[in-house]
Amino acid sequence: MASETTGQTIGILGYDSYTFVVENLERSRAFYTKKFDFREVARAGAAWTQATGQAGVVFGAGDVRVLVTAPLTQSSAAARYLSRHPGGIQTLAFRVRDLDHTRAFLKARNATFLGDDVDERDAQGGRYRRFSIATPLGEVAFAFVERTDFAAFAPGFEDVPSDGSPTNRFGFQIVDHVTSNARTMGPVIDWYAKTLGMQRFWDIEFHTEDVTPGRAGGTGLASIVMWEPESGIKFATNEPLAPYFEESQIAKFVHDNHGPGIQHLALAVPDVIATVEEMRRRDVQFLSTPEAYYKHLPERLAKLDITNVKEDLAVLQKNEILVDGEAKKYMLQIFLREAAGLYDDQRAGPFFYEVIQREGDQGFGYGNFRALFESIEREQRGGRAGSPPG
Q1: What pLDDT was estimated at residue 387?
Q2: Residue among 388, 309, 284 nearest 35 (CA)
Q3: Are residues 52 and 143 both part of a single domain?
Q4: What are the pLDDT digits (tens) for 222-232?
Q5: Fewest CB within 10 angstroms: 3, 184, 244, 272, which?
Q6: 3-state secondary structure 78-89
């Protein structure tokens, strides 16, 4: 579905940051710095902390920035979020070329603006402008940021001294994509198209009933990926699929999250094998993959005309990394366990991270869905809930 105004786009340049609300900020600090090798790049100043009633720390790797907030007062936005949800992403922020253009673009499409506009200058004359809009994803907001020679993370934050972009031993540089879950994705997809001017990129329907007809239970999803061609930003949205709608991993996410929301965020790396092996040494836990997946992998890759995988399939199997693609283009992906499982704390929430290495393929792992569904179903049967990717 093309933009309603011919030749006009929203003007997104890329991701600016995302805000993750937690109850335990020190636990998050340990996760990002020790598990993911992110560096602490900025901290909320005293004035911001007093004005918002929140603690705030920014962790970064390459161009990825995550602002982790925790409530200090019960009237804070973080406290209000956590009174209705477990930990999770509250805001996705995007860099834009011209904030006035973006505002006019969204206003013409009946976006719902939130009253938190920012327009500030720093001591060197740099300017930071920002506004936010509501989304169909419950309390998740989208923010749009224009920076003009503004060096700090944001007004009210004090940068931690560094020698430039924070390095990361895993090679984390960018957010590859974001995936959300809802009980019905129609309103979300329509909003991406009509309000943000996005286009359909990819879609899939899958159900374990397709694998074993007549089974006593199962799970399924329908998923549509929308994208903004100018920036390349992609959003996947999942909904549960009948039969066994309520038993679906998507429905379970919505239940555990107390509403729709962002299920996972994918981070791109240049060498997923090295990343996974080091993360396992750091006691990071990943979703398991059925052994049968690798038994049939060579045959499946041959049918997909993927004959150029440079990684050793035995090493991929050892690390339970998934492979998919077509026509000599492929991708490698793996999913962490959800935060609630990682911490054995339901209040940590059902969000999880994906780690992805792309070798030409820009898809979302169509052929990997069956293996992941079977893996997650085993986790749920064992009392360790999970959610499927996109």
Answers
A1: 44
A2: 284
A3: yes
A4: 999 999 999 99
A5: 184
A6: HHHHHHHCCCEE
